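User: Structure with magnesium ion, tokens only please.
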Amino acid sequence: MTELGPSPLAAGDRQISLTDARAAIAAALQPIHGRECVPLMQALGRVLAEDVLSSIDVPAHDNSAMDGYAFDGAALHADATTTLNSVGTVYAGTPYTGRLAAGECLRIMTGAVMPEGLDTVVPLELCRSAGARVEIEPGVIRPGENLRRRGEDLARGKPALRAGRVLRPADLGLVASLGIAEVGVVRRLRVALFSTGDELRTLGQALAPGCVYDSNRYALMAALQRLGMDIVDLGLVRDDPAALQATLEIAIAQADVVLTSGGVSAGDADHTRTLLARLGEVAFWKVAMRPGRPFAFGPLHAGGRSSWLFALPGNPVAALVTFYAFVRDGLLQLAGASPDPLPVLQARCVHAIRKRPGRTELQRGRLSPAPEGGWQVQITGSQGAGILRSMSEANALVVLQHDQGSVAAGERVDVWLFDGLV
Ligand code: AMP
Ligand code: MG
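Assistant:
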């Protein structure tokens, strides 16, 4: 039998870097198939399934960029006052059909079609007018100014937006400007979500000694909602292989992705590992990062269907941080999206931070304008992997890179903006 090369998922128990884990996920995933047509009003945040071609020139006609007087730029005198005679008014939406004689101009409104033979608009505030007489001093305007050319925004037949675009408000305006009322988008990605842990309680239940409320499902559900996912909430699952298997089978039957939290750290991993090996080719990674070390990822199969499992650590901060570090981009990739990479800002770190090289650390921080200009970032209290308050107070993650050592107060650090992390 031929030996196959190591699969990108085969890191096994080896510790891998955050960058390698991201790359292995990106290499494994293929965009889903399935398209639907949606009215433009409901297309915000959806992923374009195909290029949107411009069916018309936008603008459809040369038109005025200003309120002013339209005239033939050849009439301008370079070193003397130009005097014109206004013979009418052109409004937006009502093209002027007459023809002008030499020395004549028209009062024109912004957006009005440029009458034939005219190519220049002098704004009202740059000329003098008395009755029909309009005077323009030399040097205030050049021929061709304040004219919006036909097709300068979008030329007919050219792509206005590319497939993979996550539609934003300006994109919807652009599509509407083409007269297109519906767009072809990728169907929503279905994500099944559940939490694992015998100690977890649902909201509304009494909290017995040693138990905690299941907060991960709320935080992860919200993160999924922001990404426009179609969510299947499968609730809480006990640390019991049979219950876990039954829930996974339900999840695989319905969803493209199964997102879980808890049950992948050293203490729990053994039975989870046996079960997942039965259902697919899931790799357990120890990612060299903090928070978020235990993480499992890979394909699962049941009943003739397949799904991708992202199994996050149970600690609430670790669950969210690994969501942002791995799941977010993975889901967007599966959903056919090609978003711009998240911006990494540089900020002055207010405190010293101890760190050893060899793992990526993501600290919760608050980014604010620095008194000297630029940005500063302040760490939001205790960085324990279970301390959600410091995550809730943060608006950014300070990224201390894999090979980086301790940071001195005042040093510059990389920062991921939280509100960019939608
Ligand atoms: P685990 O990864 O299952 O070992 O869990 C690590 C820690 O996270 C434990 O203290 C759990 O109680 C806590 N934890 C696990 N899942 C959740 C959850 N859904 N909500 C809140 N805390 C959790
Ligand atoms: Mg657990």
